[in-house]
Amino acid sequence: MSAAPVLVTGGNGYVGSRLVATLLERGYRVRATVRDARRADDVGHLVRAAGVDPGDRLETVVTSLDDDAGWAGALDGVAVVHHVASPFLSVPEDRAEEVIAPAVDGTLRVLRHARDAGTAHVVMTSSFAAVGYSPKAGGRYDETDWTDPEDPNDPYIRSKALAERAAWDLVAGQDGGPGLTVLNPTGIFGPVLDGRLSTSVGAVQGLLTGAVPVLPRLRFGVVDVRDVAEAHVRAMTTPAAVGERILLTSGDVVTWGWVIDLLRRELGADVSTVVQDGAEPPHLEISNDKARRLLGMSFRPAGTTLLDTARSLLARG
What we know:
This protein is α/β, with parallel strands linked by helices. Helices cover 38% and strands 17% of the residues. It has a single domain, classed as NAD(P)-binding Rossmann-like Domain (Rossmann fold, 3-Layer(aba) Sandwich). It has ten helices and 14 strands. It has a seven-stranded parallel sheet, with helices on both faces. It has a three-stranded mixed sheet with strand order 8-10-12. Strands 6-14 form a two-stranded parallel sheet. Residues 6-242 form the NAD-dependent epimerase/dehydratase domain.
């Protein structure tokens, strides 16, 4: 194994911290970025919360997706970048550029600096938001599908489609830059390592506490944060993954009503949240065939992931 560090952007985030822990557990040296120097120690604390001793193989650097400062040093000597950091904001349509511009510009900034540093491979976390938020007859989505950014979706959803398109366009238009692999997870759930929650996990917390009185009637895919981290490591070590986009999902499609029933039945949770009235949402299937075939992935079932999410939240009070 190379002594060169692996760079993880957003190393103190929900996915990033789990990926840092997984890489360290496999013996890699890791350099993690955070955008605020006051959060630099968080990465080590989160890794230890995951049960991993980083020893002297973890370093933290301060960079921001909206500024060039620090990126040259962060990428010095790095052969592989895991670009996980991404803004996740819900804003009204008249403020859409507050989400779209940072997502696109931040992705291009990482790729350009990786190119300039001679980095060989970038593994980027995109989202099912870039794949399956435009209507499709039959409702079955795979890696050949794209969300049309002209469709009337939430600005965050459009930002994911635009940022991923921009990444592929940049790589296709440059000579000698890094190879790119894009991972497109569905809704990411799984055990938490601290009290800062992702939007998806926050919804589960809202079910357990009663803070979310109503949830929308929709179908969605589920993938475990631990499986997302595993997929990043496998993509990094699988030459055939270069140039590919790969959906990450358990294969199960659930509804909030199903999740509520699961929490009541398996945990005895007193969930008061109701699901909006209305027609049943359209059929949805999300393929994980490529992840299984190309990366050798096996995914935790959605029920296992959601119960582990809830148990970890309850354990934290």
